[in-house]
Amino acid sequence: MPLELLSAAADAAHLAAALPAEVTWEVRPRMPDWGVGGTQDPDGDPIGRFLNIAQGVVVVIGVIGILYSAAKMAIGKLGRSEVAADGVGGVLWTVMGVSLMLVAVSVVTTLVGS
């Protein structure tokens, strides 16, 4: 009896797999609609979450860079003027680098459409 039932279930699965199924394809690639149409949870947006994390990392890197440059200027105050000058240059490079990274995040956000 169990063998006959298993055989009948296998035959039913085989017949179901042989039935034609209607499949439609989207011709143009597009980004998923994460929460815009109310179809998905907005907290499930992986691209937006990644960009938010990237902005946070940029801010942390900027704070570390400013503190490093401030430490070099403080050491230079003790009589090593070349280290102080290097610290002032480091502030400029840090501010410009952080600005470029934040602009890059904004550009990616615009391109993705989040």
TrEMBL record:
Keywords carried by this UniProt record: Membrane, Transmembrane, Transmembrane helix
Residue ranges crossing the lipid bilayer per the database entry: 50-70, 91-112
Top-level taxon of the source organism: Bacteria
Protein name stated in the entry: DUF4190 domain-containing protein
Species this protein is from: Streptomonospora nanhaiensis
